[in-house]
Design a protein that fits this description.
The protein has 11 helices and 6 strands. By secondary structure, the chain is α+β, with helices and mostly antiparallel strands. It folds into 2 domains: 182 residues, Transcription factor LuxR-like, autoinducer-binding domain (Beta-Lactamase), CATH 3.30.450.80; 73 residues, Winged helix-like DNA-binding domain superfamily/Winged helix DNA-binding domain (Arc Repressor Mutant, subunit A, Orthogonal Bundle). Helix 8 crosses helix 10. The two termini are 29 Å apart.
């Protein structure tokens, strides 16, 4: 297994760039993952991409499972990974070492380095994957891992090929995160509020009822004035509940609140 810090080079025009306008247009749509898989296949020779969010020591949350073929096997592998195999994955080095916030790290592995037979079977053999290049980025509240997977015939990832991928890392991560946020929010405001409330209860049980209500309504995009009208309280009281909740969550903005929950 090879680990090194990723220095993001200046973008250069290559095959991946021609897919960007289409990818931007279909963020949040069912076609996004398929089109991203095609772009990664043609530009980087990757059979599929995966993205996971890791929050503290909890099981990871799947953000993306994008494949050019074997989609059912890839989806099942992602499910098994979230349930069991993430603890056996040596690329999750942030679990036992400190990564600097804001920096990128490449972790390169191949199937012959995987010792656990069940993990090897479920996440490599079943998906016909041999090489994987995982890019880790540490955010204040979580770690995001974007992995590029290759079949054996495509060969291992070379440094120059990783440089090509790195030119678009910020763009790819932004697209994936935006797609994930849009898909995670129910269309109904009431349903979205309830969904956020349940997430908050599960992750932050110390929040009071009013703090939960305030945070959930912030997440669905309500202003302080709208929250005050909805809850039948004053704007100043809303600001007080928000301030108390943010202090408990160790955050200071709506964007950070959304990141914590996604």
């Amino acid at each position: 297994m090879h680990i090194f810090e990723a220095n993001i080079p200046m973008p250069k025009r290559d095959e991946f760039e021609q897919y960007l306008p289409d990818l931007v247009d279909c963020v949040g749509l069912e076609s996004f993952e398929d089109r991203l898989a095609v772009a990664a296949d043609r530009a980087f020779d990757c059979a599929h991409l995966t993205a996971f969010n890791f929050y503290k020591d909890n099981a990871p949350r799947k953000m993306l499972m994008s494949a050019i073929d074997n989609q059912a096997s890839v989806e099942e592998a992602g499910k098994r990974y979230s349930e069991v195999h993430w603890k056996r994955d040596p690329t999750n080095l942030f679990r036992d070492r400190s990564l600097e916030v804001g920096k990128y790290y490449w972790v390169l592995t191949s199937s012959n380095e995987v010792e656990d037979p069940d993990y090897l079977s479920d996440c490599y053999h079943e998906t016909q994957i041999y090489y994987r290049a995982s890019l880790l980025r540490r955010f204040p509240e979580y770690t995001m891992k974007l992995s590029f997977h290759r079949k054996r015939a495509a060969g291992e990832f070379l440094r120059g090929q990783l440089d090509d991928i790195q030119c678009y890392v910020d763009t790819i991560l932004s697209l994936v995160r935006r797609h994930d946020i849009i898909c995670a929010v129910p269309k109904s405001t009431d349903a979205a509020r309830d969904a956020y409330t349940n997430k908050l209860i599960g992750q932050f049980p110390t929040l009071t009822e009013r703090e939960l209500q305030t945070c959930a309504l912030i997440c669905v995009g309500m202003t302080s004035e709208a929250i005050a009208l909805t809850l039948g309280i004053s704007i100043n009281t809303v600001l007080t509940f928000r301030r108390r909740a943010y202090r408990k969550l160790n955050i200071c903005s709506q964007n950070q609140l959304l990141r914590v929950l996604h």
